[in-house]
């Protein structure tokens, strides 16, 4: 009887151990970048005008096990007030009530819900990431292709005196501004309906 109970206990422990180990390997990467290198580039290529701009106010966190990144939780946040274009009048309009209304909706967010089609090659990988994208108070579920590079032990090389790991994400995708209630169907000769977006960001996981 004792042998039977011992066998059951060992079996239970062996089933739980991988879960504990997986959890222990999870890291939280912080994408708030004091160096100001993280960025988003956006482009609206209309028949009469091509608008190009950037955003640098990026924050948020992702928690994942680099060895098994399909199980990931987190959200990337862009400060809408950090969106800029070269023309100052155009920038004022972009932030105004008729367009992004950044005084009322100061954040653009992407909250991850699922990772699929993961392909890994060492510390690099690609995947289709699905999540809730929110802009100007409207939330849509979208799927975007993500290229990720995990850089263990290389946080200090980015600047500073802190040891830790880096996770670099590169994303390119398109959105339709009408889907988010941004002047739907209006001014299409000068402001295209389609927005091309690219993002290059690095998250830091300092060693405790």
Task: Give a topology summary.
Elements: H1 2-25, E1 27-30, E2 39-45, E3 50-55, E4 58-65, E5 68-79, H2 88-95, E6 107-121, E7 124-135, E8 138-151, E9 164-176, E10 194-206
Antiparallel strand pairs: 1-4, 2-3, 2-10, 4-5, 5-6, 6-7, 7-8, 8-9, 9-10
Describe this protein's structure:
This protein has one domain: Lipocalin, CATH 2.40.128.110. The N terminus is likely disordered. The protein is α+β, with helices and mostly antiparallel strands and 208 residues long. The termini are far apart.
Keyword list:
alpha+beta; Lipocalin; globular
N-end to C-end Cα span:
45 Å
Largest sheet: 10 strands, antiparallel
Order of helices and strands: HEEEEEHEEEEE
Q: Widest sheet: strand order?
A: 1-4-5-6-7-8-9-10-2-3
Count the domains.
1
Strand content: over 45%
> In the CATH hierarchy, what is the architecture at level 2?
Beta Barrel
Q: Which CATH first-tier class would you pick?
A: Mainly Beta
- Morphology call: globular
Number of DSSP strands? 10
The number of helices is 2
Rounded Rg: 21 Å
Q: Unreliable stretches, pLDDT < 50, 5 or more residues?
A: 1-24
Estimate percent helicity: 10-25%
Per the CATH scheme, the topology name is: Lipocalin
CATH superfamily: Lipid/polyisoprenoid-binding, YceI-like
Mean pLDDT comes to 89
Q: Structural class, judged by helices and strands?
A: alpha+beta
